[in-house]
Structures are given as C-alpha cells and as structure tokens.
C-alpha cells in the first residue's frame, strides 16, 4: 500500500519555512498561529525572551527586558518564528515599559485566543529604577500547572 505525500500543515501565508523581511515596527509585524494538535488537553506553553529591547519614547535610549510569556492554548498555537520577528520589531520602537509589555500580551491574546495568557516584563533599571510589568487575560484554568516565572527581582550589587 503506497502512502500519499502529506500536504503541508502550514498555510502559504505563514512566515515559517521561508525568508521574510524583518518588520520595522510592531504594527507591521505578522503573528502567525497554527492549529493545536492537543486542543482537548489543558497544558502550558512558555516563551522566554531574555534579551528584549525597545527604545525610550522620550530619550530614544535603549531599554532592556526579560519577558516571560505563558499561555494555555485553545484551538491555536503561537508560531515561534513569527513571535521572534514580532519581538525584534520593537528594537526601533519607542514606548514605555508598561505599554510594550501589555501591548505584546494583548496582541498575542487577540491573535491566538488562548484559554489563558500572562506576560511578565522584567525591565532592567534606567535612572536607577527597575520596572516589572505583569498582565494576564483572566483566571488560570482549573487544574493547570503554572510554574513560577523564575525571574529574580532586580537586586543590583547588593
């Protein structure tokens, strides 16, 4: 019995598996989703972004953060290449820490419609003050194991 070649499970509009231009702003960046093959199971997906950068909207100086994105998928998964391109689009984007963190969380939630999502933005100090920003879509699904994000609070040299 011969097997038919399987059709690609990715849409031609996905960025996965092909060369794409780096987006120069978050608004121009495309976030892709793919079907969740484990749609009937509650589980957690974590993306760690330890070297996030954006620009201060006032001074134009670079800001740095460690982002932790946790979500419980519904029908869709967030495709990681598109997330990398989206995250990179902030490198020349001016926005406050709070705006960047919440904007990323909301955009992902709007695109993939997870059962639950949270983002932690652990921003490195500028002007001597670190800022940590947290946002989530609602309550954690009952029974879902959600580990701590594991990012230590900023301690400086002390």
Automatic annotation (TrEMBL):
<comment type="function">
    <text>Catalyzes the NADPH-dependent reduction of 7-cyano-7-deazaguanine (preQ0) to 7-aminomethyl-7-deazaguanine (preQ1).</text>
</comment>
<dbReference type="InterPro" id="IPR050084">
    <property type="entry name" value="NADPH_dep_7-cyano-7-deazaG_red"/>
</dbReference>
<keyword id="KW-0521">NADP</keyword>
<keyword id="KW-0963">Cytoplasm</keyword>
<dbReference type="Pfam" id="PF14489">
    <property type="entry name" value="QueF"/>
</dbReference>
<feature type="binding site">
    <location>
        <begin position="97"/>
        <end position="98"/>
    </location>
    <ligand>
        <name>substrate</name>
    </ligand>
</feature>
<dbReference type="InterPro" id="IPR016856">
    <property type="entry name" value="QueF_type1"/>
</dbReference>
<keyword id="KW-0671">Queuosine biosynthesis</keyword>
<comment type="similarity">
    <text>Belongs to the GTP cyclohydrolase I family. QueF type 1 subfamily.</text>
</comment>
<protein>
    <recommendedName>
        <fullName>NADPH-dependent 7-cyano-7-deazaguanine reductase</fullName>
        <ecNumber>1.7.1.13</ecNumber>
    </recommendedName>
</protein>
<dbReference type="InterPro" id="IPR029500">
    <property type="entry name" value="QueF"/>
</dbReference>
<comment type="pathway">
    <text>tRNA modification; tRNA-queuosine biosynthesis.</text>
</comment>
<feature type="active site" description="Thioimide intermediate">
    <location>
        <position position="56"/>
    </location>
</feature>
<feature type="active site" description="Proton donor">
    <location>
        <position position="63"/>
    </location>
</feature>
<keyword id="KW-0560">Oxidoreductase</keyword>
<dbReference type="InterPro" id="IPR043133">
    <property type="entry name" value="GTP-CH-I_C/QueF"/>
</dbReference>
<feature type="binding site">
    <location>
        <begin position="78"/>
        <end position="80"/>
    </location>
    <ligand>
        <name>substrate</name>
    </ligand>
</feature>
<dbReference type="GO" id="GO:0033739">
    <property type="term" value="F:preQ1 synthase activity"/>
</dbReference>
<feature type="region of interest" description="Disordered">
    <location>
        <begin position="1"/>
        <end position="35"/>
    </location>
</feature>
